[in-house]
Amino acid sequence: MKHMVDAIGAKILDKEPQIKLVIAALLAGGHVLLEDRPGLGKTTLAAALAQTFGMDYTRVQLTSDMMPSDVLGVSIYDGKEQSFTYHKGPIFTQFLLADELNRATPKTQSALLEAMAENQVSMDGTTYDLEEVFFVMATQNPMDDAGTYHLPHSQLDRFIISLSLGYPSRESERALYSQAYLKGLYEPLKPLADVSQLKKWQQQVSEVHASEEVLDHLQQLIAQTRQHPDLAHGLSPRAGLSFFKLSQAMAFMAGRDFLIPEDVADAFYPVCRHRLVSSQGFDVVKKIIHQIAADTPFT
């Protein structure tokens, strides 16, 4: 996987840990939520990831006036045939970038729920299957930006991880100004894999072995999130499954077919980041997550 990380890293400088996490989420069969201010490389990362894995890529720019049909598609009446014909929307792709998801109304946001959870779309009493490999990367602007809507917990829970790219280092930002970087920025990356290979990797990830001791540790971490007095709620069973799958993917990317405690530790924060809530704000949640990890050693 290192050659893929390096290829994407040529576009997104100084962000190797985040690139590894996004690839792990894809290998785990999950979806990704990127939370950051505009201009930090979220869209560039999405396009580079899709190109590297040879996936069909569609970008939807979400706005407050969009309707669910703008994403899912719409049935149009055919006068000649005297019947309705379903015209598929942009969601029928392998890689969907839902840009600025929290600018869409809750009704449009919820249109993604069934697709993300079950790889299908229901329209006018008929169910349409999505691509066998279907990956959503959504971007979200800070909630203090004008014209944004909170994502409901049911929506957030469909993302296996959330992460922030943040600002680059001074040295990396200086490299952005170089002619060599600017020349290659808009050139598409050559595919280093295809969808059939991705499916094989996803199957191998699902077969990564976890010992009883490692599973005990993983469950202890989950239990601590449910017992903490400053958290509104802990990780759900579905979130726990996402935690396990991401841990498997982290092990696979490290070249192993078995879990070790470090894989669980690496997966814990990105799985918890968007799921746990405290009345004291996100900064406190961040401290709590790291404190739980520190106070729950592997034994």
Termini Cα gap:
30 Å
Can you tell me the residue ranges where pLDDT is under 50 for at least 5 consecutive residues? none
Radius of gyration: 20 Å
CATH architecture of the largest domain: 3-Layer(aba) Sandwich
Count of folded domains = 2
Overall morphology = globular
Name the CATH superfamily classification of the largest domain.
P-loop containing nucleotide triphosphate hydrolases
Strand line-up across the major sheet: 2-5-8-1-9
Summarize the structure.
The chain is 45% helix and 14% strand. With 299 residues, the protein is of the alpha/beta class. It folds into two domains: 2-174 and 192-196, P-loop containing nucleotide triphosphate hydrolases (Rossmann fold, 3-Layer(aba) Sandwich); 207-295, Helicase, Ruva Protein, domain 3.
Describe this structure in words.
- This protein has 299 residues and is of the alpha/beta class.
- It folds into two domains: 178 residues, Rossmann fold (3-Layer(aba) Sandwich); 89 residues, Helicase, Ruva Protein, domain 3.
- Helix content is 45%, strand content 14%.
- It contains 14 helices and nine strands.
- Helix 2 crosses helix 12, helix 10 packs across helix 12 and helix 12 packs across helix 13.
- The longest helix has 17 residues.
- It is globular and about 70 Å long.
- The two termini are 30 Å apart.
- The model has no long low-confidence stretch (mean pLDDT 90).
